[in-house]
Predict the 3D structure of the following.
Amino acid sequence: MPTSDPAIETRAEQPYVGIKRAVTMQTVGHVADRIPAVFEWLAQRGIEPAGAPFLKFDVIDMEGELVIQAGVPIAAPVAAGAEGEGEDEVFCSVLPAGRYATATHLGAFDELIDATRALLEWAAARGLVWDSIETDAGTSWGCRLEICHTNPALEPDPAKYRTQLAFRLADNG
C-alpha cells in the first residue's frame, strides 16, 4: 500500500460547492458519481474550480448510514441552495481552517480503508485528537476529506490514482 508518511499541515479556510447524500458503505460510490453534476453546476455559472474534487465524510456509522458530500473547492463563496434541499441541490459552504493530519495514497480507491486506518493509528500513537464527536447517528466529523487528485475518467489504471486524506485535528489536539 504505497501511502506517503503522515504529516500535520495547516490549511486555510476553503469555500466549496457540493452535494450531500446519506449512503451505506456499499453505496458510497453514488456520492462520488455526483461530482460531475457539481462541475456542471460550476460550468453553467462560469466558475472555475480552485482545486481537486473531494469527498467530505460528515457522519460515519460503518454498520449503518454515512453522510457524505461530493465537493469542489472554489475561490470565493457563491449563492447556492441550502444543504439538503432536493436530490441534486448544490450548496455552498466552507471547509474549516486548522491543523489537519494528512497522508497521500497512490492506488485504487478500495485501498483507502487501509490507508485511513494507518493514518488513524499514526495519529493515535502521537496522542492527536480529531475534530469529531460521537453521536447516536455515528461519528460526526468537523472535516474529514478524501481529496481526489486523479480523474478516473482520464486515468484507466487504478494503481495510479492519487488521493490525499486530510482529517482536521481538534483545536486542542
About this structure: The two ends are 27 Å apart (CA to CA). Residues 7-168 form a domain with the Multidrug-efflux Transporter 1 Regulator Bmrr; Chain A fold (CATH 3.20.80.10). The chain has a mean pLDDT of 89.
